[in-house]
Amino acid sequence: MLEVELIQSILDGNQQDFKLLIKKYEANVFRTAIGFVHNKQDAEEITQDVFVKVYQSLSSFNNKAAFSTWLYRITVNSSLNYLRKKKRKGFWVSLSELVQLPSIDKQPETIITERSEQTIIQQALDSLPGKQRQAFVLSKYEELPQRQVADIMQISEGAVEQLIQRAKNNLKNKLEKIFLKL
Amino acid sequence: MDNNKNIQQKIDQFIQEERNTAFNPFLSTRILAVIDKKGKAETYMVLPAWKTAVVAISLVLALFTGIATGNLYQSNNKEPDVVLMNDNRMENFGFFNEKENE
Question: C-alpha distances in angstroms, A136 versus A60, A157, A161?
């Protein structure tokens, strides 16, 4: 079934067809979300939120842009909103983040070093300016072509290239300073 | 140069690990359940609004019916006779009090 037909079928009230749409795109939405939140539970929650929004506003989708572009736009906005809400909640760290168990086949020192390195990289990614971060996540986590990233972010391809390059340089500079100290 | 390469490798490794994170295989079912629940909740949301409106209208109607019924009532009673008494001529009840007479 073509995507347009699938969407029309959902709009006609066939909820089971929406499951096909979820199955087709859930991995993409989840990967993009995890690029922003770095946590499985949070990314699943965002994925759920995204598809509920898609279901509720599917009638407003016009076929001017590709469905995936529209979906990625909702995902990016939902992820950013989620982060804003989480920031407002303050210091309430989810229990799952604290209790995430490391794999047992690694030495404790290795786990600690890896964990701290991961935290440093995560913090460096999170500290990127908004647009750079969006472009970087879409291009690195989803491996989307620059043209699609440009469509999602509604900017030019050249601007996307610049944003990704700046993001890489920023990350390199930040991490260089920290890793040299370690 | 090696350091740069090393950092880039670490970033790529971090991204790859996050990309490989497996999500709940029942996520789609969960999403459909949430959509279903939301649909039902929205249907129920209509009922209290109706109920509230009906209760409010009933109260207003009851109030106006009460006022209208009250206005319809016409009394047939004449004005009561007024008896004027001089308080000074009333008996002093203290006189009959035992304690005062002891």
Answer: 28, 13, 10
**Residue A6: Cβ within 10 Å count:** 17
Residue pLDDT tens, chain A, 182 long: 788 888 889 888 888 899 999 999 999 999 999 999 999 999 999 999 999 999 999 988 887 889 999 999 999 999 999 999 988 776 555 555 554 544 555 566 665 566 688 889 999 999 999 999 999 999 999 999 999 999 999 999 999 999 999 999 999 998 888 777 66
User: Which chain B residues are closer than 8 Å to A121 by Cβ?
Assistant: 10-11, 14
- All domains in chain A, ordered by first residue: 1-99 (1.10.1740.10), 101-182 (1.10.10.10)
Chain B: residue whose CA lies nearest to A143: B19
* Contact indicator for A51, B31 with CB cutoff of 8 Å: yes
Q: For residue B90, what is the DSSP state?
A: S
pTM: 0.70
Q: Which of A29, A121, A123 to mutate to test the interface with B (most CBs of B within 10 A)?
A: A121
